[in-house]
Amino acid sequence: MSQQSAPGTPASPPWGIPASIAWVLLAFLLSVLVATGAYAVWQGGDAPPRTPSYDGVTISIGALASIPVQVAVLAFAAQMRGWRPADYLGINWPRRGEIIVATICVLAIDMLFDASLYFTGRDVVPAFQSEAYQSAWDAGWFIPMLLAIVIVAPIGEEVAFRGFLYRGLVRPGREILAIAVIAAAWAVLHVQYDWLGMLQIFALGLVLGWFRWASGSTTLTIFMHVLVNLEAMIETAIKVNWTS
After folding, report:
1. In a 10 Å sphere around its CB, with 0-12 CB exposed, 13-18 middle and 19+ buried, how is residue 243 labelled?
2. Alpha-carbon distance 80 to 7, whole Å?
3. Hey, which end of the chain has fewer CB within 10 Å, N or C?
4. Rounded to whole angstroms, how far apart are CA atoms 134 and 198?
5. In terms of Cα–Cα distance, which of 181, 171, 151 is closest to 71?
6. Are 218 and 170 in contact (CB under 8 A)?
7. How far apart are CA 155 and CA 223, in angstroms?
8. pTM above 0.85, yes or no
9. Which residue, 87, 103, 106, is CA-closest to 95?
10. pLDDT tens track of the chain, all 244 residues?
11. Using CA atoms, how far apart are residues 201 and 185, in angstroms rounded to an integer?
12. CA–CA dist 20, 88 (Å, integer)
């Protein structure tokens, strides 16, 4: 695989590091506000519960309402810098060979992660995943939850981290440092996992960051992220529906 440059890249440089971080935080803040409002409308004026809960309906509404806003804010920020949003965010079609290698890599990582959980005495499917799945299934929200977790969430996370932040943080000769910082920030967001789970998220972030650098395509990392979440959903379905 070879690194690709964005077609038609303008003379204007990307946003700097502080501005890139500020834009992502703004996008997250606005998306949370929209998600809270969407949930309130759905519940007839009630805000989301303050107590920790992995309710599948709440998660689905939050993702489906918030991520389009988040992506729109970051696309607007790219446009303000004089770029085509697709070029700035790395939204381009990867090569067939890159897709094949990425698929094999995801399968290998999934097996490695599952083995590490099994041999450390942990459940391959965390309790919060089963709770979200079961609650969405019971409420008739399985399809929206599937869409939110397998498709929408990967798009939002990859556009923010391997798309916008990558463009703002990566500098020639410092790619590895930037990829590691982005992976660490991404892992910290996954507070629902224990330390081993967060370590796995960080390792996955490093792999996704490398593929982003090697291919020049955030579309490829979205595809990989979709495969990871789909595998997790299949394992959760097996646990909840056939082994519980």
Report:
1. exposed
2. 18
3. C
4. 23
5. 151
6. no
7. 9
8. yes
9. 103
10. 544 444 555 658 999 999 999 999 999 999 999 999 998 888 776 655 554 468 999 999 999 999 999 999 999 999 999 999 999 999 999 999 999 999 999 999 999 999 999 999 899 999 999 999 999 999 999 999 999 999 999 999 999 999 999 999 998 888 999 999 999 999 999 988 889 999 999 999 999 999 999 999 999 999 999 999 999 999 999 998 887 5
11. 10
12. 12
Classify 10 as helix, strand or coil: coil
Q: Which of 149, 174, 160 is nearest to 205 (CA)?
A: 160
Within a 13 Å sphere around the CA of 168, how many CA atoms are in the beta-carbon half? 22
- Which residues are CB-contacts of 161 (< 8 A; sequence separation ≥ 6)? 182, 185, 186, 205
Can you read off the two tokens belonging to residue 96? 């067939």
State the CB neighbour count (10 A cutoff) for residue 238.
Answer: 13
Give Dmax over CA atoms of the chain in angstroms.
58
Q: Which pair of structure tokens corresponds to residue 41?
A: 């409308």
Whole-angstrom distance, CA of residue 78 vs CA of residue 204:
26
Amino acid at 122: R
